[in-house]
Amino acid sequence: MYSNYFKLFEFLQNSFAKESAGAYDAGNNQLLSEYLSDHSPDGKIIFLAANPDIPIKGLGTRLLNELQKRVQGKEIYLFTDSACTYQFYEKRGFQRQKEKKISLKLPNKKIDLQCMLYSKVIDK
């Protein structure tokens, strides 16, 4: 099920924002390359999101807490940007390791973003 979601997301991203998707990916790849020069992470959070229209408060926190129970002692990382709620990760002990400013060129506008790489060693 989730693999179908990611395929759909990639299709939409590449269909409507080809050039911008490339700039975003290039920025994240640069951050990752720099990060890997002095870190050896055990895993990556690819996507974590909750539907804001569902009245269940704390779902993202519960999902992250469950992950942390399962990967104690491991270092994980994730990508996010200034258009997302990166503060969520900061409040849960993730550290901003790398950042890079990029500009996304969409058909009718330009969006300036700060791409960020966060990581955390999960407490035992």
TrEMBL record:
It is an enzyme of class 2 (transferase). Its EC number is 2.3.1.-. Residues 1-118 form the N-acetyltransferase domain. InterPro entries: Acyl_CoA_acyltransferase, GNAT_dom. The keyword Amino-acid biosynthesis does not apply. Keywords: Acyltransferase, Transferase. GO terms for molecular function: acyltransferase activity, transferring groups other than amino-acyl groups. It comes from the Bacteria. This is GNAT family N-acetyltransferase. It comes from Enterococcus gallinarum.
